[in-house]
Amino acid sequence: MRLVKLSTNTFAEEDDLVAYFGEELPARNPPGLFMFRNRIAKDALNPGETVLFSYRGRLRFVAQAETGRLDNIYMPHPKYPHCFVINLRTLRRADVPLDELENRLRTRGGLHTSLRGRAWTRISNSKSAEQVVTSFLVCDGPVSARRGHN
Predict the structure, then answer these.
(1) Where are the beta strands (DSSP E) in 32-81?
(2) What is the pLDDT of residue 114?
(3) Pairing mode, if any, of strands 82-97 and 33-36?
(4) Half-sphere exposure in the Cβ direction for 9 (13 Å, CA)
């Protein structure tokens, strides 16, 4: 499990974030293509691994990686040399402060690091950690492509 911190430079407002996950990612080729800078080792993200996306100090989206880290040959951009594909069928919204998530993961999920650190923080892949994250999901179904809907 990994925590990805999303930038307010990229997403100025909450609506920008919702549009990105609900509209932009599904429209990419391949669908779910998530581009990023060189902040994660080539073998540090596994297909099927849960990825937590935080924004402004809150857990906002949860999904599984469909691929590991890839070279970005799909939408080449000098700022984003790497990418992975999010399994959009697993994409769910969440809404919880990172402090609360961190406290719950410390007591029930075996967390031994801070979620306030740098991006791409590794979190235990234990069943109890997954259950903690699942308890914070806003809805059971995938994120809708329409802005503002779950």
Answers:
(1) 33-36, 50-55, 58-65, 70-71
(2) 81
(3) antiparallel
(4) 1
Residues 6+ apart with CB under 8 A from 131: 108, 109
pLDDT along the chain (150 residues), means of 10: 91 94 96 88 90 95 96 94 96 93 85 78 84 82 49
Q: Where are the domains of the chain?
A: 2-134
pLDDT at 145: 46
pLDDT for res 142: 58
Unique residue bearing structure tokens 């890839």: 70
| Bond from prior residue into 26 cis (ω within 30 degrees of 0) | no
**Is 2-134 in CATH node 1.10.1040.10?**
no
The whole-number pLDDT of residue 71 equals: 93
- Alpha-carbon distance 60 to 100, whole Å? 13
71: left (phi over 0), alpha (psi -120 to 50) or beta: beta
Task: Take residue 81 and report the two structure tokens written for it.
Answer: 């040399």
